[in-house]
Structure formats: C-alpha cells, structure tokens
Write a structure and sequence with these properties.
By secondary structure, the chain is α+β, with helices and mostly antiparallel strands. It has a single domain, classed as Jelly Rolls, CATH 2.60.120.10. The chain is built from three helices and twelve strands, in the order E-H-E-H-E-H-E-E-E-E-E-E-E-E-E. The strands form three sheets. A five-stranded antiparallel β-sheet has the order 1-7-6-11-4. A five-stranded antiparallel β-sheet has the order 2-8-5-12-3. Strand 6 and strand 7 form a beta hairpin.
C-alpha cells in the first residue's frame, strides 16, 4: 500500500490489527471522507523536514507544533501500554494531522450514521478535523481510534496548532 485506502469495517471483535473489511468490501471515497471531515494528501515523506507542500498546509491551517513518534517496541518506551491506548475510542477536539514517514497504520473514524470506517495509511499526511456536528438535531463530536500495525515500524509526525 502506498498512500491511503478506506473502507467500511465489519463488526468482528477479532484482532484489531486485522483489516476488518466487509465481505464484499465497501470502499469509502475521498468525497465521503471529506463529508465527515477527513482530508488527506500524498506527500513525499522522505523530505518532510523541508517539504514546501507540507509547509503550505501548516501555514494555511495555522499549525505551529510538531513532534515525531516512532511506534515500535524497540523505540517507544512502555510500548505495550501506549499501543493499548490507540485501540480505545477517543475524541480529538482540535484539527489533527498525522504524517506517516515509514511503515503503516490504521485510523478508524465514525461516519454520520455511526458506522466505522477504517483508513489504512502509509507515507501520507492524514488530516482529520474533529468538530462538533449536528445530525438530526443531536450534537456529535467526531471520534477515532488508531491502530499501529505491529509488524510495521511507523514514524509519525504529529502537527497541532
């Protein structure tokens, strides 16, 4: 995989590192993702420190903070407990960018009908805007869970305002 692919997830409680595709697969389009606040760009991860496209995104969206995390048992202190946190649903109240420099990861988000969508990403900027939205008179906050595939070394840059 190079970039990003998205699909509706099955309801299985099996190992969360598995793809969890419906059978038959139900892909999710870029337009569907944008409708729920998920935007992504394919950038050159090998030049992220000086990438003019990434700099443009940062300037346009007002991102000033950046950190890098390597999700790997040999690199991340307390790996087991930290990875468990990725499996739990949690809220992001601010815009969030994840830039995958190496390896791959899953990000799971809910659509407006409360169905889970899995995004498989590698070497791509993935922006998810978490904002309060109103559907049918009720307020909802976008939520997500993140799964780092254990067999992949994932270097992830986190950008925030």
């Amino acid at each position: 995989m190079s970039g990003m692919e998205a699909w509706y997830m099955d309801e299985s409680s099996e190992d969360q590192r598995l793809p969890h595709r419906l059978n038959p697969n139900q892909p999710v389009s870029r337009e569907q993702l944008q409708n729920i606040g998920v935007y992504y760009w394919k950038l050159n991860a090998d030049i992220y420190e000086n990438d003019p496209e990434l700099q443009k995104i940062r300037e346009e969206r007002g991102y000033s903070f950046m950190d890098i995390i390597t999700i790997h048992p040999d690199k991340l202190p307390d790996y087991g407990n930290k990875v468990k946190m990725f499996y739990e649903e949690h809220l992001h109240l601010d815009d969030e960018i994840r830039y995958i420099l190496d390896g791959s990861s899953y990000f799971d988000v809910r659509d407006k009908d409360d169905r889970w969508i899995r995004l498989a990403v590698s070497k791509v900027v993935r922006l998810r805007i978490a904002i309060n939205r109103s559907y049918g008179g009720r307020q909802e906050v976008m939520s997500s869970s993140e799964t780092a595939e254990s067999s992949q070394l994932t270097n992830e840059v986190s950008l925030q305002r």
